[in-house]
């Protein structure tokens, strides 16, 4: 049932705009913090005494916490009221941001990022629900377009803003920047936002939610620590793997047997939605993993500044926004599966092109290749949401949207962890292979300058030789990682054409499903 128009609920335009901007500030902060730390990762390694693979925990801890806590958002909002919940979420997110900026060790940073992700999970769905409540059906299209642009602006501006702040001050300001906006948003909502009704009789499937949370957290911990612990030769990794399997098994059994499970069984009977969930996982995997790889590649290997890196990551976001502007219209006029196929082809082509990159790649090439990659993501994302929910019954759409959001976050967290693992493993393997050629029988190392500057019998010569081998190993390892993402993305062509083509009424406009 539609809510009354904002003019009837709020006495003035000031109150209306205060609530609108306050709720948008929350979602923009949450979206920004998904990517703002990316370009600062190389700087954070030294400050937090972390290795290349360990520093990615800063990203994955935030994402997996947000993924887990997305599930009960609707229940908590209905149980305690949107006003209290939204203000609590923004205040908690702001305080956690301040703690992240003050972190002195990797352990502290990961803990604070988990807290930040837990509070941040509610900001997107709640801000959307608030804006839907404020406006009647005939105005919601424009309002949701504004909301969607805000959501997209966060990840686009994140690397650039993070780069500028890191270059001008230090990486900690990427987190401190949230504090004044969070305080202002809380104040605006506290003064002007009218609360919604509460239902104290609601019950939530805490067992199912708990089993899924433990399973995902253990899986993520195993993926994050596997590289440093030599995988299954470590007791810790074995225990985490066992806990993950048992918890996910209990969740699956509970979902299949409980009267009112955490996720309704009927939602998995829709072929389009299940295919859409797989696509969403792959999109999350590629979107954040490629972004997390690009930052250290451009800074550590190409020697670009953090600000230059931030600006070079803008074209992909622009490509996503450009594609999202017309992808919905194309999907209504053409077969949406065809639009998704073109998008997937652009995405895969860009990944394949990146496997041939070298550190001296010019900025223009980086820009247009990542722009095409963004176009591909946008052409897949919008029709995917349209088709995935087209055949799903209306009463299951909220559950389906929550599951879709969960799969995107899990894909992002798993993608960052796996690509970091592949990168670390490739560097070790390639370094060992290259070292095999650094012998007295290699004529290139035995004449003129190399015989002096890279003589392994002399300490500085050994250091020079090792740094050269390490550099070459990293260049090839990054190419391997881009190739790995190419192969991971390849099955999407099959998944796209497993979907049924939806039939829309003439003049109907595609709608993006959201979590309330």
Polypeptide structure, described:
There is one protein chain. This protein is mostly helical and 516 residues long. 75% of the residues lie in helices and 0% in strands. The chain contains 22 helices and no strands. The protein has helices at 6-9, 13-35, 41-47, 57-70, 73-80, 82-102, 106-120, 123-134, 137-168, 173-176, 178-192, 206-225, 235-257, 271-301, 306-312, 314-333, 336-354, 363-390, 397-435, 448-453, 459-489, 492-498. α5 (73-80) packs across α6 (82-102) and α12 runs antiparallel to α13. Residues 1-8 and 505-516 have low confidence and may be disordered.
Task: Set out the fold topology.
Elements: H1 6-9, H2 13-35, H3 41-47, H4 57-70, H5 73-80, H6 82-102, H7 106-120, H8 123-134, H9 137-168, H10 173-176, H11 178-192, H12 206-225, H13 235-257, H14 271-301, H15 306-312, H16 314-333, H17 336-354, H18 363-390, H19 397-435, H20 448-453, H21 459-489, H22 492-498
